[in-house]
Amino acid sequence: MEFVILAVVIAVAVIGAIAGLVVSGRRRKELPPKATAPVITAPKAPAEPAPEPQVGDEAAPPVEAPVQTVEEVELPPVAEIEELPALEVPEPTAGRLVRLRSRLSRSQNSLGKGLLTLLSRERLDEDTWEEIEETLLVADVGVKPTQELVDRLRTRVKVLGTRTPAELRGLLQEELVQLIGEDTDRTLHTARHEDGRPAVVLVVGVNGVGKTTTSGKLGRVLVADGRKVVLGAADTFRAAAADQLQTWGERVGARTVRGPEGGDPASVAFDAVKEGIAEGADTVLVDTAGRLHTKTGLMDELGKVKRVVEKHGPVDEVLLVLDATTGQNGLVQARVFAEVVDITGIVLTKLDGTAKGGIVIAVQRELGVPVKLIGLGEGADDLAPFEPAAFVDALIGD
User: Is 287 annotated as belonging to a binding site?
Assistant: First the structure.
């Protein structure tokens, strides 16, 4: 019996072992293949810097740097230096009007030749004298000067008796020169004062007469006469005025003092004179803003400019620029400006563009102020000192 029980136990154990083997084999088949772990390589540690040499260590052998000759060394490129433009040398003012005579004679010949033709008539009756008067009035000589000239011509022609062309030419020339005023002082006072203070010249006038251009040309006239000039751009209301004046100055080596656009003109004028004193200039030329003679406020401001500048000392010249082509309207402007500032001289521009040269006589009579400069073209040196004899010579022609 014990044998039977033992056999049964052994059989059960064998069956259990076989069953366990079968289940284990099935499980192995169902499991996925074992994944291989990635191999991570640690980064290399940075190389340790070479230890600094200590006292007592042997010195490393010197490393010889390559030696270059002077020819092999590359030099940095030389910066290009912009060459300054050469200063212009203005034409001398002495005799300048004579050189510009042809321009004046082209526009004014009609006046002189017309008078000579009328005076050369065989019979000088009242109609002829009326034509002579009309010729003078059309040329803007003015009523009173015209009457004076006609009266003197009547008297001298009667005394003369004969009237050859040469005699008439000489007679007319003498009378016109006397009417213009040969002995009038037309000097520009632009020399430095004895105390070292520069002469101060204010340039005034309405818009459109070429005032800033005339100021630039006048600067050239002064430089041509040997003056050291400082320009003051006190026309702060017109954007291009200061630039324009500075360009004129740079061409002849004259310094320009300017202020901010729309700034106080009186302040700029004051600073210009101050700079002129500091630099030892002979002349300070101040270009003021163009004023409409009908605007009271602007004219008052011009008076302020003059008063502020006079804190440095008296103003030596106040030059009124007039457009000769405006004729009698220029006389209206002249009167108003003379009420605000003391005009010392007239600059007549564009005289080559009008046949009304009589404005020279009329404006002098109106203001009691001489014409000191005349403009005869657009060139840089076309502004000339006024010389009565040369002017009349151009009027009458050859």
Answer: yes
The reply to whether 69 sits in an annotated binding site is no
Determine whether the annotation assigns residue 212 to a binding site. yes
Q: Are residues 245 and 357 in the same domain?
A: yes
Structure tokens at 57: 């260590």
Rounded Cα–Cα distance for residues 205 and 238 (Å): 14
Q: Is 210 annotated as a binding residue?
A: yes
- Asked if residue 219 and residue 258 are part of one domain, the reply reads yes
pTM of the model: 0.75
139 annotated ligand-binding residue: no
350 in a labelled binding site: yes
Same domain, 251 and 103: no
Q: Give yes or no: residues 301 and 329 share one domain.
A: yes
Burial class (CB in 10 A: 0-12, 13-18, 19+), 44: exposed
Strand order in the sheet with 383-385: 255-258, 229-234, 283-288, 199-204, 317-323, 345-349, 371-375, 383-385
Residue 207 known to bind ligand: yes
Tens of pLDDT, residues 113-164: 888 889 888 888 999 999 999 999 888 888 999 999 999 999 998 887 777 8
352 annotated as belonging to a binding site for a ligand: yes
Question: Who contacts 88 (Cβ-Cβ below 8 Å, separation ≥6)?
Answer: 220, 251, 252, 380
DSSP 8-state class, residue 341: S
Is residue 328 a part of any domain in this protein? yes
Q: How far apart are CA 144 and CA 231, in angstroms?
A: 39
Q: pLDDT (tens digit, 9 = 90+) per residue, 91-125?
A: 888 778 777 777 776 666 677 888 888 988 888 89
Q: Which residue has the tokens 């640690």?
A: 42
Confirm whether 300 is domain-assigned.
yes
Helices (H), the chain: 2-30, 96-99, 101-119, 126-138, 143-160, 165-180, 211-224, 239-252, 265-279, 296-309, 328-340, 359-367, 388-396
Q: Is residue 240 part of a domain?
A: yes
The verdict on residue 243 lying in a domain is: yes
Is the confidence at residue 43, as pLDDT, over 50? no
